Amino acid sequence: MGPAGPAGEVMSREEADRALERLEAEHEAVETSLLALQDHAGRRLLEGARLAGTTAHRWTRAEAALTSLWNGFEIYSRTLERARELRARRRWPSREDLAELTRLLRGTLTVPGGALPGTSGADQGEAPRLAEEMTLGRLVARMNEWYAQALDVVAAADSVWSALPARIDLLAAELGRVRSLAYSVGVRPGEHPAADDLERTTAELASLREEVVCDPLAFWISTPGSGAPGDGRPDTARYDAAARALEDVRREIDAVLAVRQDAEQRLMRLRDVLSRADRTLAEARTARGEVLAKIAASEVPAVSGPPTVLQEQLSTAAEYRRRAQWHRLSPLLESLEERAEEELQRARAQLSAVTAPLAVRAELRGRLDAYKAKVAQNGLAEDRILIERYDIARRMLWSAPCDLRAAEDAVLRYQRAAQEALAQLREEARGAAGGAMNMGAE
């Protein structure tokens, strides 16, 4: 035990009692924390685990901190017990008793051990010291540092072990279920990308679990700016990526399963769509011949034939279904459905383009008859000019082949003549009405 301090500085009875009370409270707190750390599940797992990497390095330092912590606590306990015994001798201690209490409570202690964790020499790689002199207060502060160092490792490792291995095992079980489904529909490695993804995810989960068990602290993210032991969270980035990859594979397998369930209906719908496209193209070809016979001076687009590649792929899809090769049928059906709809729309567009001249002729006929009816309603059916222009337009529209440009010009001439005649009729009617009003006024 080292000296108490400068000569003559001896504690009073009240100071000694207060110091003892404070040190006993600190002793109880340290003892409680030590026992809790000793019983911590994470510490027991660390002691029995085969560690590697970051965890092995930090646990080695944490074990040294625990050893120093227990050694320091033992010295602290012995010193405190001697001080208790000395204080209990007399109600009113003598000056010699107070001097001894002062040396015990305020003097320095020799703490044995090698490189004490938390000391500058240990941190900087210096040669370990055989002992270090420190006061009880400094020893308590140092024990708190050792405790925080050990607890940080224990709590972090326990958090990772509590969070990740169980989740990895659950994901591995789900992966096994998905693999069984995949094999049932022919999705196997080397034959389907989803199966290859499944194998990669399987290997990743196995590797991840082994790394988590051996080096949990490699999967720990400390909270920035926090000094509290064990303050942080497990790093689940690799687990989350594996879970997403498995979900993508599961969706792919579900799609293949759906194909197995409704493949026949989808094939029937495909045959129907392609048949409608063929019929539409046939109708377009027939209509083109009719247009060429009935319409003159008009460019009629050619009609293409049905694409044989779609029929060949449809036959291939039927063969896949017969052989239960669902993983190959699934993407082929999706492609065929999209292309079949495009083919039907293309056929309809060709029919519309081919029959456009007939639609123009029908519109001109309708417009001509509408103006003829309007003229008749207004008493101009016998107008010679209108009759002549109507007959010219009608002959052009009802002749074959019909010159659409000339017929449209004829309809426009008849339309303008009818509009002028109707306007003149309205003007005469207004003049007659004005004359009648003047006669009435006279």
Shape: elongated
- How many beta-strand elements? 6
Q: What proportion strand?
A: under 5%
Number of domains: 4
Going by helix content, strand content and strand pairing, the class is mainly alpha
Strand order of the largest sheet: 1-2
Helix content: over 70%
Distance between the termini: 148 Å
pLDDT < 50 runs, ≥5 residues: 1-8, 119-124
Average per-residue pLDDT, rounded, comes to 82
Number of helices: 12
Describe the main β-sheet briefly: 2 strands, antiparallel
Provide the gyration radius in Å: 50 Å
List the secondary-structure elements in sequence, H or E. Answer: HHHHEHEHHEEHEHHHEH
Short description:
By secondary structure, the protein is mostly helical.
Description:
- The strands form three sheets. This protein has a two-stranded antiparallel sheet.
- It is elongated and about 150 Å long.
- By secondary structure, the protein is mainly alpha-helical.
- The chain has four domains: 13-155; 160-260, no CATH class; 268-355, no CATH class; 360-441.
- α1 packs parallel to α4, α1 (13-38) runs parallel beside α6 (136-184) and α3 packs antiparallel against α4.
- The N and C termini lie far apart (148 Å).
- It has helices at 13-38, 41-48, 53-88, 95-106, 120-123, 136-184, 193-214, 237-294, 308-322, 326-377, 384-397, 404-441; strands at 108-112, 131-135, 220-222, 232-234, 295-296, 402-403.
- Helix content is 76%, strand content 5%.
- The protein contains twelve helices and six strands.
